[in-house]
Amino acid sequence: MNEFARTELLLGRPAMEKLRKSRVIVFGVGGVGCGAVEALARSGVGAIDLVDSDVVAETNINRQLIAAHDTLGIPKVDAAEARIKSINPDCRVTKHKLFYLPETADSFDFSQYDYVIDAIDTVSGKLRLVLAANEAGVPIISAMGAGNKLDPTAFRVADIYKTSVCPLARVMRHELKKRGIKKLKVVYSEEEPAEAKEEAGEALPEGKRSIPGSVAFVPPVMGFIMAGEVIKDLAGINEK
């Protein structure tokens, strides 16, 4: 028996071998991205790239799996690498300590990857990721809004053009249509955003008008769902 024996019972040995040979890149190692990374590592994915320029902060502890008092101040990609290696020492981890922006987009050769996970917040970054993945012929799955949500059962997997409710998905539909992108697999929520409580205020970073509220049981679930889709696609389960 090995650490992935229970997964192999469901997916089969050939699928596990496909996962072992796969390389997945995760853009954004926050509440959603951490959940995705966790599930990828625990499913036996052989190589994971981590992209994030941030460090673990105290306000991350409520929802990010890599965040704890003993990881405060550590770059998120370093904390995520340590967690991956504690789960699967054989996993090949590549770290990119940067934020995905138009000026850093050329740092990546998307043809190296078997799947792209978009767990970043900015519309401009998401659009650039989708365009780059499409150009390279690599599948991508994108996270829509998870902030100010309280119902993890409201998440859905769909093509971007079949989404509803989510404000971010609405913007993405509009912008992708303008760019001629005909499809994009996303995870989105059909829950209306809740009102954030003002008295719980946190100092706003420069340039930000507001900070969305979040809880322990919503963003990681979105990440798990995203990773689940990636794992099933790579293993050929979604084709059946």
Task: Provide a descriptive summary of the structure in words.
The chain is an alpha/beta fold. The protein has one domain: 3-Layer(aba) Sandwich (Rossmann fold), CATH 3.40.50. It is built from 7 helices and 7 strands; from the N terminus they run H-H-E-H-E-H-E-E-H-E-E-H-E-H. It has a 7-stranded mixed sheet with strand order 3-2-1-4-5-7-6, with helices on both faces. Helix 1 crosses helix 2. The model has no long low-confidence stretch (mean pLDDT 93).
Task: Quickly list its features.
240 residues, alpha/beta, seven-stranded mixed β-sheet, 7 strands
- Here the CATH topology equals Rossmann fold
Mean pLDDT comes to 93
Large-scale geometry: globular
Give the termini distance in whole angstroms: 27 Å
What is the CATH architecture term? 3-Layer(aba) Sandwich
- Number of separate domains: 1
How many distinct helices?
7
Low-confidence stretches: none
How would you summarize the topology of this molecule?
Layout: H1 5-11, H2 13-20, E1 23-27, H3 31-42, E2 47-51, H4 76-87, E3 92-96, E4 115-118, H5 123-136, E5 140-143, E6 155-159, H6 167-178, E7 185-189, H7 219-235
Parallel strand pairs: 1-2, 1-4, 2-3, 4-5, 5-7
Antiparallel strand pairs: 6-7
